[in-house]
TrEMBL record:
One of its GO terms (molecular function) is acyltransferase activity, transferring groups other than amino-acyl groups. InterPro entries: Acyl_CoA_acyltransferase, GNAT_dom. Gene3D superfamilies: 3.40.630.30. The lineage of its organism: Bacteria, Pseudomonadati, Bacteroidota, Flavobacteriia, Flavobacteriales. It comes from Flagellimonas pacifica. The keyword Ribonucleoprotein applies. This is Ribosomal protein S18 acetylase RimI.
């Protein structure tokens, strides 16, 4: 696999079953062992249900993109603009709500490549910055975002079931 074989493709409703599968798979791999099992299962069942993801795909201000290595889906991103954003709701910004690469493909520079694609999409839309929320205990992700030009500008609560967690809000000015 080389970076040259990577591309992203916008998801449509036809992709729903695959989106549900990869959403659950990557979130579970990333966070299952750090959360209460009951709260975690409830969150997964709600956040990545077919109905919920269908309504998000249908929202004109939300885009999901699959990440492909040749013909294989190896990750996905979720971008929100305008009122689809989970916070901020600045029409000059884009929220990077989800960025996931399946375990076997991590550590190969795909995250950096994806951030470049996201930055290009935001610039194409004439936006001023990209922002995201990252769990304060996810030190590896925070380090990654800092290394790629993001800065912390606040925090907000994030719930996994009844468990109230804190996300750092980070932004990349374009």
């Amino acid at each position: 696999m080389g970076i040259m074989s990577l591309y992203i493709k916008c998801c449509t409703e036809r992709d729903l079953d695959v989106l549900v599968q990869i959403s659950k798979e990557t979130f579970i791999a990333a966070f299952e062992d750090q959360n209460d099992p009951e709260d975690f299962k409830k969150y997964i069942d709600f956040a990545f249900s077919k109905e919920k993801l269908k309504s998000e795909i249908e929202n004109k201000d939300t885009q999901f993109y699959f990440v492909f290595d040749q013909e294989e889906i190896i990750g996905y991103i979720k971008l929100n603009k305008e009122r689809a954003q989970t916070d901020i709701n600045d029409k000059e910004s884009m929220e990077l709500e989800r960025i996931y690469v399946i375990s076997e493909y991590q550590g190969r520079g795909i995250g950096k490549w994806l951030l470049q694609q996201i930055e290009q999409l935001a610039r194409k839309d004439g936006l001023n910055y990209v922002w995201l929320g990252v769990w304060e205990k996810n030190r590896a992700a925070i380090k990654f975002y800092l290394e790629h030009g993001f800065t912390k500008f606040g925090s907000h609560p994030y719930y996994i079931g009844k468990d109230k967690q804190t996300d750092w809000l980070m932004r990349l000015d374009l």
